[in-house]
Amino acid sequence: MSLLEMFTYPFMVKALIAAFFSGLASPAIGTYLVQKRLSLMGDGIGHVAVTGVALGLLTGASPTWTAVAVAILGAVTIELIRERGNTNGDLALALLFYGGIAAGLMITGIAGQSAQTLNSFLFGGLLSINWGDVFVTIVLASVVLLLCIGLGPQLFAVAQDAEFARVAGLRVRFYNLLVAVLAAVTVTVAMRTVGLLLVSALMVVPVATAQQVTRSFRTTLAAAMGLGVFAALAGLIISAYVSSTVTVQSGPSIVLVALGCFVLAWPTGSLLRRRQRLREPFAPLAPLGHEISDEHPHQHGDDCGHPAIPHGDHVDYVHNGHRHAAHGEHYDEH
């Protein structure tokens, strides 16, 4: 199968549409989870949702809808346990995660379903997507995006500083539960393309990548959504292209593409952070005068490569952790 030929297959068209909306919605809610330091919450919800998929296989109902119901129930439980904020809460979360995946595996066996059937939900599967799944993915992803963007100021305020948000009159508990529910819906939206056990990576890794090169919350959110779409589509295409010779599921390839983007962005982020530190090497104190340095062998200028910082009527150049400026035949240390 050639690269262009794969786009003529109906299963590939359905998978690409589902991947596009999954790639948009996952980093959107993931940005708030990262801001709240709950990067692993999606992973926990994914474990609980396995039980929902198994219940759908057992009863003959749609695994997507049973997974949505169980994932929301699990997410609300996780949020309420987290809200208590005691040491027993952490243990209760671990019990919930392990119980979710163990119950899912047992119920799948009772339902007489094969491990291959469950694997398509755990790690994603191109052939398991039908038009009904695509329609549900579009609707649920659109709801997630609408709420994440429309309620962005409120969700950001609660994620950034819950105490300040409470003083400002926001219903912190309601917005925390809303984020948990949206995370649960997103997990089930992306389970067909990425899989329940790997969906958390698509929610977190694009956000971590975007944070390397962005400084504001809005640009991080927009960049993370773009990176999520790129990783989802590129990973899906790679998976389909190599599947003619080897068996590669879509979930792992999507996650590896996302991680590859992070590896490429990390050096750029490090360079930008270092330059930012050099530009602000000193505390903003009032000038205390200056002292004359010895002869300086380097000629500073626009193209010298050192950060230039305006300082009163002249320009300082950051050099080896300190600032100095040309003054006649010598340099003044500032």
TrEMBL record:
Q: Which Pfam families match?
A: ABC-3
Q: Which GO terms describe its biological process?
A: response to zinc ion; transmembrane transport
Keyword Transmembrane helix included in the entry's annotation: yes
Quote the protein name from its UniProt record.
Metal ABC transporter permease
Q: Which family does it belong to?
A: Belongs to the ABC-3 integral membrane protein family.
* Compartments, record wording: Cell membrane; Membrane
Q: Does the keyword Hydrolase apply?
A: no
CDD domains noted in UniProt: TM_ABC_iron-siderophores_like
Query: How is it placed in the membrane, per its record?
Result: Multi-pass membrane protein
| Membrane-spanning ranges | 54-81, 93-114, 134-158, 170-190, 221-242, 254-272
Q: Which species?
A: Nocardioides cavernaquae
Could you state one GO cellular component term attached to this entry? Answer: ATP-binding cassette (ABC) transporter complex
Q: Which UniProt keywords apply?
A: Membrane, Transmembrane, Transmembrane helix, Transport
